[in-house]
Amino acid sequence: MTAAVAVRDLHKRFGTLEVLRGVSLEAAEGEVISIIGASGSGKSTLLRCIPLLEVPDSGEIEIGGEAIRLRHRNGHAEPADRGQVNRIRSTLGFVFQSFNLWAHMTVLQNVIEAPVHVQKRPRAEAVAEAEAILEKVGLADKRDSYPAHLSGGQQQRTAIARALAMRPRALLFDEPTSALDPELVGEVLRVIRGLAEEGRTMLIVTHEMAFAAEVSNRAIFLDAGRIGEQGPPGQIFADPVTERCRAFVMRHLNR
Amino acid sequence: MHPLFLADTMVKLLAGVPLTLELTFISVGLGACLAVLLAVLRASVAIGAWLVRLYVFALRGTPLLLQIFLIYYGLGQFAFVRHGLLWPFLRQPFWCAILALTLNTAAYGSEIIRGGLQSVPPGAIEAARVSGMSGILLYRRIILPLAIRQALPAYGNELVAMVKATSLASIVTLMEISGIAYAIISETYRALEVFICAGALYLLINFLLSRAVAALEAWLTPHLRRAGA
Known about the structure:
The complex is a heterodimer.
Chain A: E1 5-14, E2 17-27, E3 32-36, H1 43-49, E4 58-63, E5 66-67, E6 70-73, E7 76-79, H2 82-89, E8 92-95, H3 107-117, H4 123-136, H5 152-164, E9 170-174, H6 182-197, E10 202-205, H7 209-215, E11 218-223, E12 226-231, H8 233-238, H9 243-253
Parallel strand pairs in A: 3-10, 3-11, 8-9, 9-10
Antiparallel strand pairs in A: 1-2, 1-4, 4-5, 6-7, 11-12
Helix pairs in contact in A: 3-4, 3-5, 5-6
Chain B: H1 3-14, H2 17-44, H3 46-61, H4 64-74, H5 79-82, H6 87-90, H7 93-118, H8 122-130, H9 135-165, H10 177-188, H11 191-220
Helix pairs in contact in B: 1-10, 1-11, 2-3, 2-7, 2-9, 3-7, 4-7, 7-9, 9-11, 10-11
């Protein structure tokens, strides 16, 4: 079976800093993978490489079996075909730490923007689907509000709705609760947990260890740009093999 | 100051208001389109940025009056202009004034739009890119709507400045408010009353335009108002 998302031997450096040093991973359809690691370990960069928000210096990225074509010019990697990148991006859902909603649009307009203008779906259909999604994330009554008038938790749930409206093959979460007040974290995690239960393919970069242990099928511990350890969450969070993973998990569980 | 004379002058000056407004709206309208193009060009390619900077440097650094003269008296000196397709326009003082005002306001406008473009949050652009937007679609749906909303208050200033700048068009025989005012003064030698009337008209126009811009701003930026307001 083709993996929903696969990356092979990704390398990425920023200047002299080598952030990714050969990371490979495959997410099967319906798999929920949590990616943990200290800050600077490369987990956000890894996630951002998948929709090419960062272009890896080398390595391969495949979405649903289709490899993103990259080429090298003047020592820089770049997409060989921007059209392909746009098309593949529109089959993924990406949720940012800082929401990144479009401030000039209402909640509903944020959610239907890409379906209507990128995927060219009929507006009425996109609106109907967006309303169903907003219902699911608990924001049906906020459809005509602007992001500035919402709490952080509501903004992040809007961003999740926006990602879902793309009918994504996989959902990518980049520290979705790190910018939230502690009392707002729960509502966002509840939505993500619901999505995991629907059997969606998800990659979640997170510092919420208990949550990661509970929702994911597999956990990956990134350490200095390499996969330090991976396995079922029961192993990674309760009984890690490597000393570095053990130290990291202990530090975070005790907080 | 005779009230009857003031009233009579006011009526005569009112006849110039349509021309003043035409000059303003046509040049600010065309100039704004050009300004967006210049600002986008400046933000995208290196050679474009260099050319736009040169353009802004030249147009902002020289008097508008001089630019009007150059276009009105200067263009006709070139045979290719006289025999060109645009000559039916460029031989008319009205279109010369429009051209000068447009090129001038575009230089200021492009700087205002540039500030707006720089204020667009990178995260909003990144979110658009990751949903598959790029190029013109990205500009049309995300970047420009956010940039223009940000630039609107400053552009309101530019509009007001342009209303006043149209008074220079009287130099090339256009009978807008100031042109009519000069004509009345040369007949009556009553400069004070006539200029007070003309000033009052400009004030009134600018008051109304400022209110219109403020209304447009409120309509375009409901997200900046407080919830429920």
